[in-house]
What we know:
By secondary structure, the chain is of the alpha/beta class. It has a single domain (30-163), classed as 2-Layer Sandwich (Double Stranded RNA Binding Domain). It is built from three helices and eight strands; from the N terminus they run αββββαββββα. The strands form two sheets. Strands 3, 4, 5, 6, 7 and 8 form a six-stranded mixed β-sheet that branches. It has a two-stranded antiparallel ribbon with strand order 1-2. Helix 2 runs parallel beside helix 3. It is elongated and about 70 Å long.
Amino acid sequence: MQKSLYLLIFMCLFYAGCGVYSFTGAHIEGKSIYIHPLENRARNVEPSLSSTLTEKIRNRILSQTGLAPLANDNADYDLSGSITSYEVTVTATQNTQQATKNRLSITVSVSFKNKLNDKTSFEQSFTRFSDFDASKNLQSVQAGLIDDIGNQLADDIFNKAFVNW
């Protein structure tokens, strides 16, 4: 009984002094976040890309932090950004004439403001890509590629904002 009491007191003091940590390793100081919709400023515009990436980032952050989403500037954290690049390039050729693999790359520029601790605020670009067989039409594989790349970008942004590895 006495050991349990000491353990409980130690845990309370430990967590009170360190902020809130999640099982993902995230350090959460605040209670709310405002996630602005990403603006699509890429030269090649995929109409649903902005909403898809914004939702992936929002879901990743909210599901892993317990932060409350706000729709105004009174939040403890503020995340905004834009899609700056959406492009397909050739990554492999056969006999120097014919493409065998193509790559879809997406770059997102993010501004993250921590209103409680400015040291963890940042502005950074994140780029991720996924390769696909050149014999396939982009439209036929695009949804899956965007899903894969969107998950990677959401993880990168979450880790930079809250895990600080």
